[in-house]
Task: inverse folding
């Protein structure tokens, strides 16, 4: 299935880039009629098929050597997987190179008003995670002195698509300021909801309607976001952001009794269709980050606090507050390249006026590297990472995570601690000088194993609201 | 059905055992590739290091593992097993075309910005009084002549081996400081040469780069000159000529790390690194970064201008980073070809190259000794990979016979006395049928004749399979001499090592 998705994704990527490049200028005619025509700039470099190759030693008949027949059989068997891999990489590279190298760059720069000397980057993206659709895509970032824009496209199947467009305006001065606006659209075909609480199956707040304990749903999400960022000092930033978003929730197609509205009692899931309000949310966040780079782990401290208020703008009344903080240290051990990184992340939602909150707004636990399946009004994730140097561009990482959720602080008790969830794992990270460009990790927990592979900037790339 | 499978397997087994020689087309050898036809200027290629890393460390490894096909012979080789002159390769071992521009002419104008193909952080770009661009590269503090001298020497030696390199001159800048002036760009710099594919916008570029002998054998050159790294930025394309009338040429740029300088700098960095660690990847994985720090010993060389230029080299295992896809396909004939090129560098060229380094006499003499010893190592190794013979000519002799004269380069180079050399050879026809059964001939001198009878010359196409022996022990590969016979007169159709 994943191979099929890969092939479809690749084809789509190729079609997309082909479509983009249709506007490319006409090729300059060759001055020499004997010279072959200008090659198609969109052509994906061919895998090396030696049969068709030009040679300075033309032959009348190729020789046959002992063992050639066995090699031919092996070649037939491996032809498809070899070329799938080859085309996948060449296709991604061709797309990235095309945008970075070819006629699209000046056109794109002109479209975005990037002045001479502005920069343009392309990150191919590839995500694979246990229990989630395989996704490939492209993130394009253009940067000039005052404006940075980002376009992101992710594809994991016809019903799993992400499109995002963002522009950040930098205003230099004694206190650097950044203002950003963005649009975001996501279609996800199969998400899981297990109810609220640390042990949803036993939590009386969940009204299960059948023997199934996991409800599957599809989600269509639209979000507009504006933010204002201010750097008070080199490591201190303040963000003010406001968003307007809507999520439409329906049962996943063709899953029968495992659909969300089948698993849970009628009306017990607030937020299921037809409840799909536009929700406005305003937030203030502050971040202290003393690290010198965001790529390879380096010594420093990261602290983040945020608080925000939300209300609906449609007939379904809802109103709530969000608040939370994150504290993470990066401590060198023996070598500056060995970094021990303890962290704690707390997210809280506060109900106002006893109004209901859609289930999808409850804090999740994306920082927990076991299975992120719990939601409640309060989430606490703690953990320790230990990262050490392998090569100039690669680190290894071992980690342990603990996570719990609860209806509120007063509900924490010894039983809650005993039922706390944990996960441990090992991973490899590949860096550029400024960011993590690929990561693979394997974690294990009592609930199962989780493999996560990502190539390119991850989804949460950006300020705090983008991790929601 | 039960009968079909064994039958099929039987046929396959039969096919697996069958051998038949290649028959070369009846065409004159290609002496010039003709890849200098005028083309519009191709796009400047932006190098994306993340894509490059993914390509060489992931795609290359996966595809290589899943490819059982026999590695094809180099495609930029003519029927005489030589690389013809092309935009990649020239044949100027005497350095006559090395420096068309000469050193920069004062006054110079400073230019800022742009990528430095030399890879040196402190490189400066200038334009001389004639408007010719140069990149100026300085020596590290306390290492006068190390980088500048090496660049001047190595670029000439690499040129002498047949690669295109920008000319480098040791000059003094306006403040009297010693500096290497590298004339670059030559024409328009099109960025790093794509390695895994051809350049899509260069219609002249029609041979897959991984199948170019000149690229496959590049590490043999690196072994001789002790180049530690051939980074992607060092292989560069340039558009030479007026726009629309020019063509792409391929260069090796920034050889300041040759002659052991790469190794000197790496050792120095290692010694000064407070976080230094053993280099073994798996050792690092399993020791969690907590292994004891190895001692940090600063490197020392006999002269300030010298790198850690070892006296001897084992070309078979000489490491060069990063992974290089053409090297994955290198074959013994490719290595032999480069060993032949190294052996053929004239004495006068070596002297000119070393003189261009403008180093103290002692340092120059030391370098010369090491270059000679390493050259002997490379050539001796290369001449043992296959039968190191070339065909001098085919003579028509009385009685309808013919004499194939072989020149043994190992004997010519003095690595082997003729008395230790024998040739075990046989002749087959175009279908692989034996024409002359296996015969042993003793080497007479550097040149040895092998006789073909009138009977043998009745076949229209003959393949002589000649395997050299050293003290009666076979060398790993035979020399194949393909002869086309026309009315009893044989002429060389192809040579394969």
Result:
């Amino acid at each position: 299935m994943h191979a099929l998705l890969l092939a479809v994704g690749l084809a789509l990527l190729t079609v997309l880039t082909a479509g983009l490049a249709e506007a490319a200028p006409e090729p300059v005619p060759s001055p020499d009629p004997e010279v072959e025509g200008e090659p198609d700039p969109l052509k994906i470099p061919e895998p090396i098929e030696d049969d068709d190759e030009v040679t300075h030693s033309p032959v009348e008949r190729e020789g046959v050597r002992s063992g050639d027949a066995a090699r031919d059989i092996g070649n037939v068997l491996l032809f498809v997987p070899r070329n799938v891999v080859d085309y996948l990489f060449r296709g991604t590279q061709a797309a990235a190179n095309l945008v970075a190298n070819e006629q699209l760059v000046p056109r794109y720069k002109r479209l975005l008003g990037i002045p001479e000397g502005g920069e343009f980057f392309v990150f191919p993206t590839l995500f694979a995670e246990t229990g989630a659709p395989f996704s490939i895509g492209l993130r394009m970032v253009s940067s000039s002195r005052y404006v940075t824009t980002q376009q992101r496209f992710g594809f994991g199947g016809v019903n799993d698509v992400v499109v995002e467009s963002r522009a950040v305006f930098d205003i230099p001065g004694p206190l650097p300021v950044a203002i950003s606006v963005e649009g975001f659209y996501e279609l996800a075909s199969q998400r899981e909801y297990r109810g609220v609480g640390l042990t949803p199956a036993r939590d009386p707040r969940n009204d299960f309607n059948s023997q199934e304990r996991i409800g599957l749903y599809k989600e269509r999400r639209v979000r507009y976001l504006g933010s204002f960022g201010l750097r008070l000092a080199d490591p201190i930033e303040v963000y003010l952001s406001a968003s307007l978003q809507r999520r439409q929730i329906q049962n996943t197609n063709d899953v029968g009794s495992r659909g969300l509205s089948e698993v849970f009692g009628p009306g017990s899931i607030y937020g299921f269709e037809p409840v799909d309000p536009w929700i406005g949310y305003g937030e203030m966040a502050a971040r202290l980050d003393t690290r010198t780079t965001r790529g390879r782990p380096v010594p420093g401290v990261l602290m983040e606090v945020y608080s925000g208020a939300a209300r609906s703008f449609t007939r379904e009344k809802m109103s709530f507050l969000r608040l939370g903080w994150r504290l993470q240290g990066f401590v060198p051990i023996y070598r500056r390249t060995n970094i021990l990184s303890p962290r704690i992340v707390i997210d809280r939602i506060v109900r106002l006026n006893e109004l209901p909150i859609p289930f999808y707004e409850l804090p999740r636990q994306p920082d927990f590297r076991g299975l992120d399946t719990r939601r409640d009004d309060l989430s606490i994730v703690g953990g320790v990472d230990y990262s050490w140097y392998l090569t100039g561009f690669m680190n290894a990482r071992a980690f342990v995570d603990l996570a719990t959720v609860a209806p509120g602080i007063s509900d924490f008790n010894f039983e809650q601690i005993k039922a706390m969830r944990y996960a441990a794992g090992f991973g490899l990270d590949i860096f550029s000088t400024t960011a993590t460009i690929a990561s693979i990790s394997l974690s294990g927990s009592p609930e199962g194993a989780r493999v996560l592979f990502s190539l390119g900037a991850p989804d949460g790339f950006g300020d705090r609201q983008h991790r929601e | 059905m039960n009968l079909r499978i064994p039958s099929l397997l039987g046929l396959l087994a039969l096919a697996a055992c069958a051998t038949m020689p290649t028959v070369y087309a009846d065409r004159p050898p290609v002496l010039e590739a003709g890849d200098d036809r005028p083309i519009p200027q191709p796009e400047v290629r932006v190098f994306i290091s993340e894509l490059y890393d993914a390509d060489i460390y992931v795609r290359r490894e996966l595809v290589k593992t899943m490819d059982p096909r026999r590695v094809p012979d180099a495609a930029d080789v003519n029927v005489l097993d030589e690389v013809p002159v092309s935009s990649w390769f020239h044949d100027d071992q005497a350095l006559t075309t090395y420096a068309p521009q000469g050193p920069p002419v004062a006054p110079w104008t400073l230019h800022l910005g742009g990528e430095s193909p030399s890879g040196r952080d402190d490189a400066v770009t200038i334009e001389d009084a004639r408007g010719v661009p140069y990149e100026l590269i300085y020596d590290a503090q306390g290492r006068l002549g190390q980088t500048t001298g090496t660049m001047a020497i190595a670029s000439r030696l690499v040129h002498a081996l047949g690669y295109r390199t920008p000319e480098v001159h040791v000059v003094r800048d306006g403040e009297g400081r010693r500096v290497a002036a590298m004339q670059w760009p030559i024409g328009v710099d099109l960025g790093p040469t794509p390695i895994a594919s051809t350049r899509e916008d260069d219609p002249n570029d029609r041979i897959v780069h991984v199948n170019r002998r000149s690229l496959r054998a590049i590490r043999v050159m690196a072994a001789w000159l002790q180049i530690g790294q051939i980074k992607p930025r060092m292989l560069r394309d340039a558009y030479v000529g007026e726009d629309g009338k020019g063509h792409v040429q391929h260069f090796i740029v920034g050889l300041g790390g040759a002659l052991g300088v790469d190794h000197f700098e790496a050792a120095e960095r290692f010694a000064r690194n407070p976080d230094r660690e053993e280099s073994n990847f798996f050792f690092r994985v399993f020791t969690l970064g907590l292994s004891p720090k190895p001692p940090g010993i600063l490197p020392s060389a006999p002269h300030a201008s010298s790198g850690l230029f070892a006296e001897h080299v084992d070309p078979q295992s000489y490491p060069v980073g990063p992974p290089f896809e053409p090297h994955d396909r290198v074959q013994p004939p490719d290595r032999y070809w480069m060993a032949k090129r190294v052996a053929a560098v004239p004495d006068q060229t070596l002297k000119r190259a070393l003189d261009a380094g403008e180093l103290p006499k002692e340092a120059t003499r030391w370098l010369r000794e090491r270059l000679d010893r390493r050259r002997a190592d490379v050539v001796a190794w290369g001449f043992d990979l296959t039968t190191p013979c070339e065909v001098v000519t085919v003579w028509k002799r009385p009685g309808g016979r013919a004499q194939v004269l072989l020149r043994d380069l190992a004997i010519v180079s003095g690595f082997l006395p003729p008395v230790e050399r024998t040739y075990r050879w046989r002749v087959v026809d175009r279908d692989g049928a034996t024409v002359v059964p296996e015969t042993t001939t003793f080497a007479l001198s550097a040149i040895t004749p092998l006789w073909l009878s009138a009977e043998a010359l009745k076949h229209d196409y003959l393949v002589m399979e000649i395997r050299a022996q050293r003290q009666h022990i076979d060398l790993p590969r035979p020399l194949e001499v393909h002869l086309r016979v026309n009315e009893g007169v044989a002429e060389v159709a192809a040579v394969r090592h």
